[in-house]
Amino acid sequence: MSGGGVTLLVIAKEPRPGRVKTRLTPAYSPAEAAQLAEAALADTLAVVRDLPARRRVLVLDGAPGDWLPPGFTVVPQAAGGLDARLAAAFGGCTGPALLVGMDTPQLTAGLLAPALAADAWSACDAYLGPALDGGFWALGLSRPDPELLRGVPMSTPHTGAAQHRRLREAGLRVRELPPLRDVDTPADVPEVAAATAPGSRFAATAHRLGAGDRAPGSTGVDATAAGTSPRSATAADTSVVGSTALDRAAG
Questions:
Q1: Whose CA is closest to 149, among 58, 82, 100?
Q2: pLDDT for residue 131 is more than 50
Q3: Given pLDDT bands bounded at 50, 70 and 90, which one contains residue 46?
């Protein structure tokens, strides 16, 4: 994997009770939801920290905490809607940039490998990682242009398709990354935890909180503890919700 000339961006909220993962309540208390959010963010930052990059930037709504590893520049999120905040994040970059959110702690270097390869941008201008809720969990641009994001309707089940269409209409060659399920509802927690790497902080937190018992329709078996495999990533495996994968991370 090369990728040394890429700026890696993580857009996130400070994991404070009552401000993050509010759709996990009342199955989880606000404090428990914040613990899951912090674990997801910590896992994401750990992966990004070890990837080759020119710069690693945390685009943060809030203040950094002890969950932030060294090696990141922290910049505040811009004002405005999600499209404006994403546009501003890319607007601060020169050269190729790749952005991810904090709601996919199952992130691995392998999932991002196509966008970090030595020839990643030779036959491709943009990378888009679709989320199962209709949004997107990753966006990479060879030439970061804020206008590629401004005005894209966010927080809808069709946000990912709309962003893909915007890229295509701009004449860009788009390659999709693998689809991922993001953490949004109580049903997502054990499913995503089962898909994370061994020893992940998110999986450990989900297990400690009994995530398998809190999911709707639970049989009382915690998949994060039992070592079962996550279900296949299909449209039937998740609810379509009125927000996108990056929306909940962006404040």
A1: 82
A2: yes
A3: very high
In angstroms, rounded to a whole number, what is the distance separating the alpha carbons of residues 182 and 244? 9
pLDDT(233) > 60: no
pLDDT for position 143: 96
Residues 95 and 214 in one domain: no
What residues make up the domain containing 214? 188-237
Three-class DSSP labels, the chain: CCCCCCEEEEEEECCCCCCCCHHHCCCCCHHHHHHHHHHHHHHHHHHHHCCCCCEEEEEEECCCCCCCCCCCEEEECCCCCHHHHHHHHHHCCCCCEEEECCCCCCCCHHHHHHHHCCCCCCCCCEEEEEECCCCEEEEEECCCCHHHCCCCCCCCCCHHHHHHHHHHHCCCCEEECCCECCCCCCCHHHHHHHHCCCCCHHHHHHHHCCHHHHCCCCCCCCHHHHCCCCCCCCHHHCCCCCCCCCCCCCC
pLDDT digits (tens, 9 = 90+) for 141-174: 999 999 999 999 998 899 999 999 999 999 999 9
Q: What pLDDT shows up at residue 218?
A: 62
* 194 and 105 within one domain: no
Number of domains in the chain: 2
> What mean pLDDT is reported for the chain?
88
Q: Are 56 and 108 within one domain?
A: yes
Question: Amino acid identity of 189?
Answer: V
Is residue 229's pLDDT more than 60?
no
